[in-house]
């Protein structure tokens, strides 16, 4: 049995990857024989354990196998010349045996769609670079009477488009109560393409939509491929061995994986067990040692190269512009450090986000979701700081929603940013157009960071002194949403309310809505003014592609402005869970793009339904809902055994001013008063009638970005206070 | 079975409104194909585009399939062929169809500058005029002027039916001596673009188009009859439907399923429900195979099939038991045509009919949860072509009334501890039941209980317990659900007075139709028939302060009624929302919105209970 296990994958590789003379059909037959004959844990099971009948489906066994080898071949005319090109052969097999207990899972497994063949081979004269993939499938059904039926794969239908052939099969004779056992095997051959870890990364979360009883993962990499692997959050370590061909073999055998259940405020990479494996080819020009560097060290190496004049990314444009802004290098020296840094940062943003290449003409708010490459931009910015002799560090950190920086064998990319040393440290992140000077994005708050102090020896060599730090955790008063609402019952239809809402948002709470509402034209105007930049028309005219496109850009901006009302409308709908009517006076009062005015502020007037109920001559107002919708915990969510990962510390404040109609008085105020405070945050609500206005003030804050599971009841208390308030009403009682 | 129902040019993205088609010319020629001794149809379409804005993005698409070929595609932008011009030919996926032979030739044109012009030319051939069914005047873009020329040789008999024509379409007819053909020329100006909207009628109702009805051809001594009459179309269907069946396997299954049953009606139902429940609907559409039902024994073996296969299996199972079961062809209400215009575009569906004791019952097993002798809105009242040996029977599916459907809920509530507590019961019939059962069966077994309770509670703050249902696998009976409920929403208390909302579901309360932007009629999926009753027991120390006003809206299409009454120590609430006609026409939108506003206003009223002292 053991022998078979070792030999079978090799045979499969030969068949999948190297048996090129075989027809597709012959290969399919060979693979079928091999897969069905390959033993793996659980594939012999003919029933799910008692007690699992209430599950929609149970995965009795799952098997994933990947084999990857790399070689090189001489090619005439490859990439315009001649030489050796690298060739990668990769095969994967995914097999699963699933007991179907209901129509929902029957529907899910009743069809399989796959890319049967794909040929993206490039031709260069007499030579070519292969890029092909073939997929083979097999399906068996174990009926409840014990009979096994093999599905005829020729029942598939094919969607052929030249070198692209997709297959679809409706699984015949499949019913609720059956066990389906199927595999999907893929063989890929690529020549001459760059290789890296990220494109070859496989992550297996050890939680699934259905319970998984047996799970085997198997990787085999050729000797010239280096492998990164990690087992996070308590996942078992992969067993690593080498065979006689010096191939790297990685295996994991798992059992009884639980069913995954959606959970609010969680970070799967920090909480749920997972296995991650990736591999890359060690080519000429790089050593095995370089390629096997841990991610952090590889990141530092790349950074170092970026400071080398021969391979680097130095671009003095930012500092040159800032010198010009302040009237020259001499005058710059007199400017306070924070002002210089702020201007450098604004200039960087302007240079990157207000650059137009003549290709991308979509000026809608989708443009605001573009992100910068932090490593590249931090390296460029840092070299400008070195030129200006400004003391700073380059820092590396991991997002709270990715594996921790110090996770063993961490294999995912890091964020690069800068800390300028001064009376107080100034943090500069290079990500979005809405990011601000000295603002740490929420996912890095409180995270560990690697500090790299650059020491430029000469234009070819910069050394980095390495240390560690912890980023500030932030506080709930740095990330705030503050809204003022003036509400009145419509005279002509008192069951509708007219609302004038002004919302101010700062810190990370503003970013999403800012990106949704700000128009590129306004961003450009504001950032240009901030850096005393050239008008858009002048900038466009300096580029040979865009110089004739001034009108095109103007038209694109105008087109985007046509969506402005819809943007406001959808934001209101998101907040109040209904489409606003009679939307008017919508405008942005402050863009929040300036460090000196970091609040994003906007206003709009609109009418909403369903907030007022008529009760005889009186009206009941859903006062709590005027603050928008509150999170509601269901019974299952009230208890929690895993820690809580939130976006960040934050505060929400609402000042609701409801005009009491003449001849009416307010009842039920006392129910709107609530207060709750604990170490995880606070909630308060106050209501009072002042003159002809009912004033309700609501404040809700969360102290931290993270809480231990043990403190979930405290957080839940605050959440429940909010959801209770959301149900509170007041009565406007007719008095005469 | 949908390929020949108007494939209009639709896109995944909204067509660019800055594109104008300044002129479009389509030439249709019916020609004799000497190689196949058949008539073929050549279509040449030249569209001239103008960019009225910058970066106008045009998606040119022409559909074809196994029976049509794209012969030529060309494009110019400002008079020149675009660099790297390369039309793509790919499969066209159609929502709800697992596989079809529909393909699309497509390419983008980008007009960077305002005033840029482009021309696309596409020539395609349809090898059999039966497959050349209709031609639309509209495009996804506005059209300034369009001309369609149809050249019909006099050796061919062809009717052209003009549909949805407005006053802006002009027709002239001339005789072309050289081709010995009549040339029908249609000219139209200022056509609005096609607009895809949810829940709208099918395109054959919406846009001006020509329906081609090839009757016959007689060329150099060769005569061919196409669909001269409906009998010809039926004969063609019968011919392609011939498919060797393994009757033994089917008979064995029929006998197995009905073992122990003596009542014939019970046997028919048993067969119908078994096919509904055990054969998965998976739609295939593949050229002539799109009209050929899969063999009954194959459908039985595979346990999946499209409408044709499911109809054929139902028929053969019933025939095996000695019943008079027939195949039927039918066009659902997505299609504006009927069999008065024999054409492959007339129908898109197949069902089975069984004649039992002189009554024709129609069995559509694709409607998974609809009981025997009840019919889905999409086929109700539609013409149906029933096989009858060498002849056919043209009949109609019964147009059942709204009372076939019912979504009924009754709550008996007491006021206790500032909440409304009591019991609730639901009954579902017809398409309301089908909708509910399809939702229940889509739930994962493990989530079923929680999800059903969430739905029934109609509010996160309400709780539902002790849910019992009737047999969810018995489609023949009403679906009933009973449970205990504690309602915390919909009740408020101020100064010892209680304000109670008697109805938390508030169906259609926010169903305003945007009159400004909606262009097409709105078709509800079926005739809704919603009844709600709430019986509230007044606490002994309370009395009714006020009851909201009743609401009564009634017209030929729908009826909204809400009533409140007090009898003894109870308040009774009753609501009826009944749609005799599920089609809301555009001309009725204003009235609809006004009525919905009244309904919503009524929903937002409460009963007041006051303490007696």
Q: Nutshell version of this structure?
A:
The complex is a heterodimer of chains A (736) and B (613). Chain A is α+β, with helices and mostly antiparallel strands and 736 residues long.
Percentage of residues in DSSP E strands of chain B: 35-45%
The coarse overall form of chain A would be globular
Q: What's the overall average pLDDT of chain A, rounded? A: 90
Q: Largest sheet of chain B, if any?
A: 8 strands, mixed
Can you walk me through this structure?
Chain A is globular. Chain A is built from 16 helices and 35 strands. Chain A is an alpha+beta fold and 736 residues long. Chain A folds into three domains: 2-291, Immunoglobulin-like, CATH 2.60.40; 295-470, C8orf32 fold, CATH 3.10.620; 480-509 and 561-734, Jelly Rolls (Sandwich). By secondary structure, chain B is α+β, with helices and mostly antiparallel strands. In chain B, strand 24 (406-416) and strand 25 form a beta hairpin. Chain B is globular and about 100 Å long.
Q: How is this fold's topology laid out?
A:
The complex is a heterodimer of chains A (736) and B (613).
Chain A: H1 2-18, H2 24-37, E1 57-75, E2 83-100, H3 103-109, E3 111-119, E4 122-124, E5 127-129, E6 131-142, E7 148-150, E8 157-161, E9 164-170, E10 179-191, E11 202-205, E12 212-221, E13 225-232, E14 239-242, E15 248-257, H4 268-271, E16 274-281, H5 288-291, H6 295-306, H7 317-325, H8 329-332, H9 337-353, H10 374-387, E17 392-397, E18 415-420, E19 426-429, E20 448-458, E21 461-470, E22 480-489, E23 497-506, H11 508-517, H12 520-530, H13 536-541, H14 550-561, H15 564-576, E24 581-590, E25 600-608, E26 612-615, E27 618-621, E28 644-645, E29 650-659, E30 664-667, E31 674-678, E32 681-690, E33 693-702, E34 706-707, H16 712-725, E35 730-734
Chain B: E1 19-33, E2 38-51, E3 56-64, E4 68-77, E5 88-91, E6 99-100, E7 103-111, E8 117-126, E9 134-136, E10 142-153, E11 156-163, E12 169-176, E13 181-191, H1 203-206, E14 209-219, E15 222-225, H2 230-241, H3 247-258, H4 264-278, E16 280-281, E17 284-285, H5 296-302, E18 304-305, H6 307-320, E19 324-330, E20 349-356, E21 359-363, E22 383-388, E23 391-396, E24 406-416, E25 419-429, H7 430-442, H8 448-457, E26 463-469, E27 479-487, E28 491-494, E29 497-500, E30 522-523, E31 529-537, E32 542-546, E33 551-554, E34 558-567, E35 570-579, E36 583-584, H9 589-603, E37 607-611
Parallel strand pairs in B: 1-10, 6-17, 16-18, 24-31
Antiparallel strand pairs in B: 1-2, 2-8, 3-7, 4-8, 5-7, 9-14, 10-13, 11-14, 12-13, 14-15, 19-20, 19-22, 20-21, 22-23, 24-25, 25-27, 26-27, 28-29, 29-37, 30-36, 31-35, 32-37, 33-34, 34-35
């Amino acid at each position: 049995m053991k022998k078979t296990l070792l030999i079978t994958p090799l045979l499969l590789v030969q068949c999948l990857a190297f048996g090129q003379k075989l027809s597709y059909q012959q290969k399919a037959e060979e693979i079928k024989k091999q897969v069905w004959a390959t033993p793996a844990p659980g594939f012999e099971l003919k029933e799910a354990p008692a007690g699992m009948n209430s599950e929609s489906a149970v995965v009795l066994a799952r098997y994933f196998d990947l084999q990857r080898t790399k070689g090189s071949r001489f090619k005439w005319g490859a990439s315009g010349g001649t030489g050796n090109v690298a060739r990668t052969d990769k095969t994967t097999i995914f097999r699963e045996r699933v007991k179907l207990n209901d129509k929902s899972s029957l529907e899910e497994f009743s069809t399989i769609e796959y890319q049967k063949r794909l040929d993206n081979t490039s031709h260069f004269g007499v030579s070519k670079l292969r890029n092909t993939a073939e997929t083979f499938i097999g399906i068996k059904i174990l009926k409840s009477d014990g009979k096994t039926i093999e599905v005829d794969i020729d029942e598939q239908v094919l969607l052929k488009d030249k070198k692209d052939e997709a297959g679809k099969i409706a699984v015949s004779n499949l019913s609720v109560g059956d066990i389906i056992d199927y595999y999907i095997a893929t063989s890929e051959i690529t020549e001459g393409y760059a290789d890296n870890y990220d494109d070859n990364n496989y992550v297996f979360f050890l939680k699934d939509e259905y319970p998984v009883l047996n799970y085997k993962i198997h990787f085999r990499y050729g000797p010239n491929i280096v492998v990164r692997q990690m087992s996070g959050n308590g996942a078992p370590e992969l067993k690593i061995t080498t065979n006689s061909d010096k191939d790297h073999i990685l295996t994991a055998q798992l059992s009884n994986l639980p069913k995954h259940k959606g959970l609010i405020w969680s970070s799967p990479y920090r909480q749920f067990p997972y296995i991650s494996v990736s591999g890359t080819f060690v080519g000429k020009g790089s050593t095995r040692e370089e390629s096997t560097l841990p991610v952090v060290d590889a990141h530092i190496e790349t950074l170092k190269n970026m400071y080398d004049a021969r391979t680097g990314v130095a671009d003095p444009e930012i500092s040159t512009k800032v010198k010009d802004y302040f009237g020259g290098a001499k005058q710059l020296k007199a400017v306070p450090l924070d002002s210089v840094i702020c201007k450098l940062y604004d200039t960087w943003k302007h240079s990157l986000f207000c650059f137009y290449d003549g290709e991308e003409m979509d000026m809608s708010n989708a443009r605001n979701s573009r992100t910068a490459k932090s490593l590249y931009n931090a390296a460029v910015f840092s070299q400008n700081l070195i030129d200006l002799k400004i003391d700073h560090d380059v820092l590396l950190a991991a997002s709270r929603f990715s594996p921790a920086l110090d996770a063993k064998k961490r294999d995912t990319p890091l964020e690069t940013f800068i800390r300028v040393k001064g009376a107080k440290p100034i943090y500069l992140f290079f990500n979005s157009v809405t990011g601000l000077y000295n603002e740490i994005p929420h996912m890095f708050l409180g995270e560990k960071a690697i500090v790299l102090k650059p020491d430029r020896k000469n234009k070819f060599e910069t050394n980095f002194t390495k240390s560690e730090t912890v980023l500030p955790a932030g506080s709930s008063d740095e990330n705030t949403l503050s809204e003022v609402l003036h509400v009145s019952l419509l005279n002509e239809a008192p069951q509708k309310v007219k609302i004038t809402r002004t919302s101010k948002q700062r810190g990370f709470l503003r970013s999403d809505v800012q990106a949704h509402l700000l128009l590129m034209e306004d961003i450009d105007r504001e950032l240009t003014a901030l850096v005393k930049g050239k008008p858009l028309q002048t900038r466009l005219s300096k580029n040979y592609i865009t110089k004739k496109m001034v009108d095109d850009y103007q038209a694109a901006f105008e087109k985007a402005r046509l969506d402005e009302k819809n943007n406001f409308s959808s934001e209101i709908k998101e907040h109040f869970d209904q489409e606003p009517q009679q939307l008017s006076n919508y405008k942005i009062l402050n863009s929040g793009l300036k460090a000196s005015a970091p609040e994003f502020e906007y206003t709009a007037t609109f009418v909403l339904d369903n907030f007022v109920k008529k009760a005889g001559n009186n009206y009941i107002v859903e006062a709590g809902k005027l603050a928008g919708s509150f999170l509601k915990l269901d019974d299952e969510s009230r208890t929690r055994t895993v820690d809580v990962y939130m976006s960040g510390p934050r505060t929400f404040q609402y000042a609701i001013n409801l005009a009491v109609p003449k001849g009416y008085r307010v009842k039920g105020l006392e129910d709107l008063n609530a207060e709750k405070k604990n170490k995880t945050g606070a909630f308060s609500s106050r209501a009072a009638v002042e003159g002809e206005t009912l004033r309700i003030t609501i404040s809700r804050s969360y102290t931290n970005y993270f809480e231990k599971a043990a403190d979930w009841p405290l957080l839940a208390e605050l959440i429940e206070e909010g959801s209770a308030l959301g149900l509170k009403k007041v009565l406007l009682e007719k008095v005469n | 079975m949908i390929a020949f129902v108007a494939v209009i040019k639709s896109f995944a993205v909204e067509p660019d409104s800055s594109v104008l088609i300044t002129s479009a010319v389509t030439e249709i020629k019916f020609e004799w194909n000497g190689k196949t001794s058949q008539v073929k149809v050549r279509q040449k379409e030249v569209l001239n585009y103008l960019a009225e804005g910058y970066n106008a993005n045009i998606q040119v698409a022409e559909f074809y399939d196994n029976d049509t070929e794209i012969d030529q595609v060309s494009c110019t932008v400002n008079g020149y062929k675009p660099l790297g011009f390369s039309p793509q030919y790919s499969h066209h996926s159609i929502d709800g169809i697992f596989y079809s032979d529909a393909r699309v030739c497509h390419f983008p044109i980008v007009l960077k500058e305002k005033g840029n012009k482009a021309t696309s030319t596409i020539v395609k051939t349809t090898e059999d005029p039966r497959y050349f069914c209709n031609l639309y005047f509209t495009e996804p873009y506005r059209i300034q002027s369009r001309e369609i020329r149809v050249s019909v040789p006099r050796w061919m008999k062809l009717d052209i039916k003009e549909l949805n024509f407005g006053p802006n379409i002009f027709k002239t007819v001339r005789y072309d001596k050289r081709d010995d053909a009549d040339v029908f020329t249609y000219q139209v100006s200022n056509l609005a673009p096609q607009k895809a909207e949810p829940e709208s009628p099918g395109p054959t109702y919406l846009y001006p188009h020509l329906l081609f009805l090839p009757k016959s051809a007689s060329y150099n001594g060769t005569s061919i009859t196409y669909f001269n009459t409906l009998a010809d179309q039926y004969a063609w269907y019968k011919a392609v439907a011939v498919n060797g069946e393994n009757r033994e396997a089917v008979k064995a299954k029929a006998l197995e399923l009905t073992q122990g049953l003596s009542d014939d009606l019970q046997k028919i139902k048993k067969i119908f429900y078994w096919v509904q429940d055990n054969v998965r609907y998976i739609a295939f559409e593949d050229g002539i195979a799109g009209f050929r039902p899969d063999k009954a024994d194959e459908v039985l073996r595979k346990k999946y099939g499209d409408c044709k296969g499911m109809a054929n299996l139902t028929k053969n199972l019933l025939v095996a038991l000695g019943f008079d079961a027939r195949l039927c062809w039918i066009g659902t209400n997505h299609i504006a045509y009927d069999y008065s215009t024999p054409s492959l575009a007339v129908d898109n569906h197949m069902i089975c009919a069984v004649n039992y004791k002189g009554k024709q019952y129609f069995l559509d097993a694709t409607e998974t949860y609809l009981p025997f002798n009840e019919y889905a809105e999409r086929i109700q009242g539609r013409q149906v072509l029933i096989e009858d040996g060498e002849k056919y029977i043209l009949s109609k599916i019964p147009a059942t009334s709204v009372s076939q459907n019912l979504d009924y809920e009754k709550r008996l509530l007491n006021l206790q501890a500032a909440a409304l507590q009591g019991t609730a019961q639901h009954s579902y019939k017809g398409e309301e039941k089908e909708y509910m059962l399809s939702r229940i069966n889509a739930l994962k077994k493990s989530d079923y209980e929680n999800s059903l309770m969430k739905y029934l509670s109609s509010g996160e703050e309400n709780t539902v317990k002790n849910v019992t249902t009737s047999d969810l696998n018995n489609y023949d009976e009403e679906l009933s659900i009973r449970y205990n409920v504690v309602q915390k929403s919909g009740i408020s208390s101020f100064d010892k007075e209680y304000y109670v909302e008697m109805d938390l579901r508030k169906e259609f309360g926010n169903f305003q139709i945007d009159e400004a932007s909606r262009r097409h009629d709105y078709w509800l999926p079926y005739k809704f028939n919603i009844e709600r009753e709430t019986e509230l027991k007044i606490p002994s120390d309370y009395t009714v302060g006020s009851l909201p006003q009743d609401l009564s809206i009634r017209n030929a299409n729908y009826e909204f009624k809400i009533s409140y009454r007090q009898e003894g120590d109870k308040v009774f609430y009753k609501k009826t929302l009944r749609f005799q006609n599920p089609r809301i026409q555009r001309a009725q939108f204003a009235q609809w919105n006004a009525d919905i506003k009244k309904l919503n206003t009524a929903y937002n009223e409460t009963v007041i209970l006051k303490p007696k002292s």
